Amino acid sequence: QVQLVESGGGLVQAGGSLRLSCAASGSIFGLNSMAWYRQAPGKQRDFVAFITSGGTTNYVESVKGRFTISRDNAKNTVYLQMNSLKPEDTAVYYCRCSVSAKYYWGQGTQVTVSS
């Protein structure tokens, strides 16, 4: 089985920065893409950023220029550097990975941005 553990969430003022990490472990031979999603209270879970095994990235329009997704394949870890945070970024952030055509989710980490 695959396990994903997120870390780095917390409370930050608007304009501040946070760096999220997600480490994959377990049966992860064949690890492919990794991504970040977020879910605000009362809202659906939405896509934030995506990165392929080769390093190709894409982002939801609202975070372009502020967030950067990256990965360290040797460590099976994906990162999300979040700068210029806004209150509307407040959500639980979830890591997702693809392993041999199956998808796995982490438990989430809370990001709260005060106004």
What does this structure look like?
The protein is mainly β. It contains no helices and 11 strands. Strands 2, 4, 5, 6, 9, 10 and 11 form a 7-stranded mixed sheet that branches. A 4-stranded antiparallel sheet has the order 1-3-8-7, with no helix packed on it. β5 and β6 form a beta hairpin. 29% of the residues are buried.
How many angstroms does the end-to-end distance come to? Answer: 40 Å
Mean pLDDT: 96
Residue share in β-strands? over 45%
Query: How do the helices and strands follow one another from N- to C-terminus?
Result: EEEEEEEEEEE
Low-confidence stretches: none
| Main sheet specs | 7 strands, mixed
Q: Shape, please?
A: globular
Counting DSSP E segments of at least 2 residues, the number of strands comes to 11
Number of alpha- plus pi-helical segments? 0
User: Helicity range of the residues?
Assistant: under 10%
Structural class: mainly beta
Radius of gyration: 13 Å
